[in-house]
Design goal:
Layout: H1 12-30, E1 52-54, H2 61-64, H3 68-82, H4 86-89, E2 90-96, E3 99-104, H5 106-119, E4 132-137, H6 148-166, E5 170-177, H7 182-197, H8 216-226, H9 235-260, E6 267-270, H10 271-276, H11 279-289, E7 293-296, E8 299-302, E9 313-316, H12 325-338, E10 341-346, H13 353-363, E11 370-374, E12 378-382, E13 385-386, H14 399-416, E14 424-427, H15 428-432, H16 439-456, H17 459-467, H18 477-487, H19 489-499, H20 503-522, H21 530-554
Parallel strand pairs: 4-5, 4-10, 5-6, 10-11, 12-14
Antiparallel strand pairs: 1-3, 2-3, 7-8, 8-9, 12-13
Helix pairs in contact: 1-3, 5-18, 6-14, 6-19, 7-8, 7-9, 11-12, 16-20, 16-21, 17-21, 18-20, 18-21, 19-20, 20-21
Length: 562
């Protein structure tokens, strides 16, 4: 049975609109020379000040020639006199230091919980807005397995994609395979050296090669299948074979790891394909048509300084070979054409790409449509000691290693906990702890604790709770604080999508769990009094729904038992 919301019960957003309209009318009546105002509310940083606050009085100080707090006091008095519903909708309306702080009546929060019980996992979701977002994240060179930094970009990208879908966007996820250029030759030579070492351990390894042991199994496979076939072959024969073999095997490994990590893509775009299908030449032709290229000393340049870059960038070398920038032009030309908003999430060594890529987008006629996010560096710790990571030295910690050690849940949560622009210290030992000090365990334990409560409740009580009847019994401060937190889900997710800040969702998950644990401690749930029992079980159901939904967006499981 779905709970209903009766017409005489007002939701928090409706109550705030009623009050905001009353304040706006009071401004128009008291200060006719002031421009019309839109009264906006924000949650105070300190919950002690109430559920919401508006600073509308500050914008009127010049017209009113009065102190903001005097203005706020007068507007509140006028609004109360003109709108008799305010006393029932708000338990407190307090002018303070120029702000108007309000605390909603319990009935508003009870109505909110009824809506949550009715909507379930779709609570707060925004309607489709008809806008498409191209979201590229995780892209790595096809020269080795995914490493720790890709774990962070995968977690950030997937969480951001989930938040954007919640907010009504059509999200298209993609990965660029950088399989053109000299690095593929370097991979081929590195794999060939490992192959030759199967027959001669002293065969030299290329100085600029990829030294990780991950190429050894591939070399062993080639040696087993082909024997000594490639020993006498010339480089023109073996180099393309070993480069292609290594690329295909490593891309397949990257794709398998991404899937295991819960990252899913609509497109794996090959850079080589962009060259072969004419997209690269089309991108160059488009920039030239727009007047943003020039020739100098036999090379073709992009006028990057016209768009804030520190120097113009070479697109085509004097020998006719394209630089690594030209495929970026082609790829972004395609992405910008098929999306309303394009977001690239890059690793910590890509700061120099920001101005260049934004300049390309502007030159192509898409100013403001491209956002570049840089995921900062990660430090791995284990037992108080830093874990050494050096790709050049061959000491790499792969994403698969992290998954094997701490699991997908902990890795996904830890990688997204801090703002993308902040360096991240990942404590492997903490991630494995089964204690409330471990943030992901803390959140999952909240979900499992609710599941335990519901298992121990009578099914008739569960049905009564799910109906949403009798929620007026929820008046305890811990109960109302928890409902307020649940109500924050849509605003929180919108903030994640608008500001590209997935860490806010991880923080929100911990806040919900914290408020539930406080409620659980202060309010016995399975009490003798039936109305109270049903109302508190309803709050448990609503909290479990929100925690499960948030964990889903974070790519973390919501366990029923722990």
């Amino acid at each position: 049975m779905s709970p209903t919301i009766t017409s005489d019960v007002t939701l928090p957003e409706d109550a705030l609109k009623i009050f905001g309209d009353a304040i706006a009318a009071a401004v128009a009546a008291r200060y006719p020379d002031a421009p019309p105002v839109t009264v906006e509310f924000e949650a105070p940083r300190n919950p002690a000040f109430g559920d919401a606050a508006t600073n509308v009085a500050f914008g009127l100080a010049k017209v009113a020639r009065a102190k903001p707090n005097d203005i706020a006091t007068a507007l509140v008095a006028d609004a109360r006199a003109a709108e008799p519903r305010l006393d029932a909708l708000f338990s407190a309306i307090d002018p303070l230091a120029g702000f108007v702080n309000v605390r909603l009546a319990p009935a508003c929060w009870q109505a909110l919980l009824a809506r949550l019980l009715r909507d379930g996992a779709r609570f707060g979701e925004f309607p489709k807005n008809g806008k498409r977002v191209s979201l590229e994240f995780g892209s790595a060179n096809p020269t080795g397995p995914l490493v720790v930094v890709q774990g962070r970009t995968l977690s950030i990208g997937e969480t951001l994609a989930g938040a954007m879908r919640y907010c009504g966007y059509d999200v298209f996820t993609e990965w660029i395979i950088n399989d053109a250029g000299s690095q593929l030759d370097t991979l081929g030579r590195s794999l060939y050296a490992r192959y030759r070492q199967q027959f001669d351990p002293n065969f030299p390894f290329p100085e600029e090669g990829y030294p990780g042991d991950y190429l050894v199994p591939l070399a062993e496979k080639i040696a087993k299948d082909d024997g000594e076939k490639w020993i006498a072959a010339g480089e023109t024969a073996w180099l393309p074979y070993f480069g292609t073999y290594g690329r295909d095997a490593l891309v397949a490994d990257q794709q398998a790891t991404a899937t295991r990590f819960g990252a899913h893509y609509d497109l794996w775009q090959s850079e080589k394909e962009l060259h072969e299908n004419g997209s690269v030449q089309a991108g160059l032709a488009r920039l030239t048509e727009l007047g943003y290229t020039y020739e100098q000393d036999g090379a073709i340049y992009f006028k990057a300084t016209a768009f804030g870059d520190d120097k113009d960038r070479v697109l085509v070398r004097t020998d006719g070979r394209p630089t690594y920038i030209l495929p970026d032009v082609a790829y972004h030309n395609q992405k910008l054409q098929r999306a309303d908003r394009v977001v690239d999430i890059l690793g910590p060594d890509h700061h120099g790409y920001i101005d260049r890529l934004k300049g390309i987008a502007t030159a192509l006629g898409y100013e403001g449509k491209l956002d570049i996010l840089i995921a900062q560096q990660i430090t791995l710790m284990r037992g108080g000691e830093e874990v050494s990571m050096s790709k050049r030295a061959g000491h790499i910690v792969t994403l698969a290693d992290i998954i094997d050690e701490v699991g997908v849940d902990a890795a996904r949560f830890f990688f997204v906990m801090l703002a993308i622009e902040s360096p991240l210290t990942f404590d492997l030992a903490l991630a494995k702890e089964k204690s409330l000090e471990n943030p992901v365990y803390y959140v999952q334990y909240g979900h499992a604790r609710i599941a335990s409560v519901l298992r121990n409740a009578d099914q008739a009580d569960i049905a009564a709770a799910q109906s949403g009847d009798g929620l007026e019994a929820l008046t305890h401060p811990a109960e109302l604080a928890l409902v307020r937190r649940l109500a924050d889900l849509p605003r929180t997710v919108q903030g994640v999508a608008d500001h590209e800040a997935p860490h806010r969702l991880a923080r929100y998950a911990r806040d919900v769990a914290s408020d539930f644990h406080a409620f659980y401690t202060e309010c016995r749930i399975l009490v003798e009094d039936a109305p109270t029992r049903h109302a508190r079980l309803a709050l448990c159901i609503g909290t479990k729904t929100i925690l499960a939904r948030v964990l889903e967006m974070l790519g973390v499981t919501a366990p029923e038992t722990m």
